[in-house]
Amino acid sequence: MSLMSDYENARAELVDACHKVYEKGFVTAYDGNLSARLDSERILITPSGKCKGEIEAADLLEIDYRGNLVGGRGKVSTEAKIHLLAYTKRKDIDAVIHCHPVYSTAFATAGEGFTRGVFPEVILALGKVPLCKYGTPSTEELPNSMLPYIEFSWAMLFENHGAITFGKNIKGAYYRMEKLEQSAKTLYIARTLGREKNLPLLKVKQLYNIAESTYGIKIDPRNRVD
Prior knowledge:
Distance between the termini: 38 Å
Number of strands: 8
Low-confidence stretches: none
Order of helices and strands: HEEEEHEHHEHEEHH
CATH superfamily: Class II aldolase/adducin N-terminal domain
CATH class: Alpha Beta
Structural class: alpha+beta
Number of helices: 7
Largest sheet: 8 strands, mixed
Number of domains: 1
Shape: globular
CATH architecture: 3-Layer(aba) Sandwich
Radius of gyration: 17 Å
């Protein structure tokens, strides 16, 4: 981003997303971290040890692609590694949000991702939501757990940990997190009523055809639900 207005807009949008994930209960206390790609050298990211509901623009940090602090005052989160992996592996990702939403994290704790077609809008917006093998936070295990899926996934669950979503912009990453948690909550309720009903594969294929022919949306075959 070369214009100051774009830079300030990115900061404002990231702060807004921080407040939203806290208000929605996707994070508590100091949990979670959010970031946005600024340019080929810098990433804007939330600091460690700061409640997302209290984040202000002045709190945001700038780091390089090696995780070094290059702007702002504060401690860089040890989970910056998962953001850096996304940005270095995917040029189409410009925002990353990592939270601990209750229902999504419950499924992650139960050892279950979302890989089957249940909700049409989720199939098209998220695709598969794989479960990443447990990795200890602050170690290389956590970003390494993303490697099997990072090239195509827009949302993942971390086993016994939480969730992460990606976007071409901050709002896109936030809306994916919101949609992920809503679908997890709905699926949980459906199971209390008995079970969810998966869409027939033929109907899922029909959705993909409509998305591509009508809206020009091409979904990576690796990210298509079963």
